[in-house]
Amino acid sequence: MEEVQIVVAHSQRATLRVGDVFLKVDGDPAHADIEVRAMAMAPVPTPAILWCEPPVLAIAAAPGTALGLLGEPSSASPAAWAAAGAAIRSLHEAPVPPWPGRSLDDVTAELDRECEWLFANQVLPTEVIRRNREIAEVALRPWKPVFIHGDLQITHVFVDGDEVTGVIDWSEAAPGDAMFDLAILTLGHEECLDDLLAGYGSDVDRDVIRAWRSLRSLVASHWLIEHGFNPDEPGCEFDVLRSRMQEPGAI
């Protein structure tokens, strides 16, 4: 009998692993619909979809290992990071999905709301929140929508040696800002950005990538805390936010 492994579980979604099969249970069937459609459209390696019976989506395990983990140095080679960059470039150059993405107004409203919560609940020093809110402003500008993964965490990209073998968890895929994907993949691993861009290309705005890291860390913290995760683990969101206080210009 195969052992059932709980990969992640919270009130919105649970992912179980049974052998080489992942079972994703989601209270919102729209997430599974987007995931299936996005994987069919994406010009990058994705896991095989075995079946989909809402609220459950069954997919095969991606071969290889994740590019890295938050809070730990990435053991992947520079060439593997470059291969990930090339894969992301092909995604961003693919036709844009036909469903809507988040607007600039949506992002701005969420940032304002989550910063208010952080201030009110005093989970971080006021100056840390204020400094990162200033940095995040750089990302709040019009962008040309491209096909983005939308949740391109380092654990969602799998490699075998120097090759990308699979990109998982596509439920947030949508039209969006290319710099957002690059920021999320290097969140907590900023030292790997040059290797990533060796494959992606250098026509990027590093200040916007940096801004998205602060913005994502600010808006994600409330959700993580409420769903039993700890953004204060080494290398995670709070560390990203605190690190901005060591930069030139920080007060």
Automatic annotation (TrEMBL):
Q: Record's InterPro entries?
A: AGP_Transferase (IPR051678), Aminoglycoside_PTrfase (IPR002575), Kinase-like_dom_sf (IPR011009)
Q: Which UniProt keywords apply?
A: Transferase
Q: Which GO molecular-function terms appear in the entry?
A: transferase activity
Keyword Repeat assigned: no
Where is the Aminoglycoside phosphotransferase domain positioned along the sequence?
Answer: 36-212
Pfam families in UniProt: APH
Q: Which PANTHER family match?
A: AMINOGLYCOSIDE PHOSPHOTRANSFERASE DOMAIN-CONTAINING PROTEIN-RELATED, AMINOGLYCOSIDE PHOSPHOTRANSFERASE-RELATED-RELATED
The protein's name:
Aminoglycoside phosphotransferase family protein
Name the species this protein comes from: Orlajensenia flava
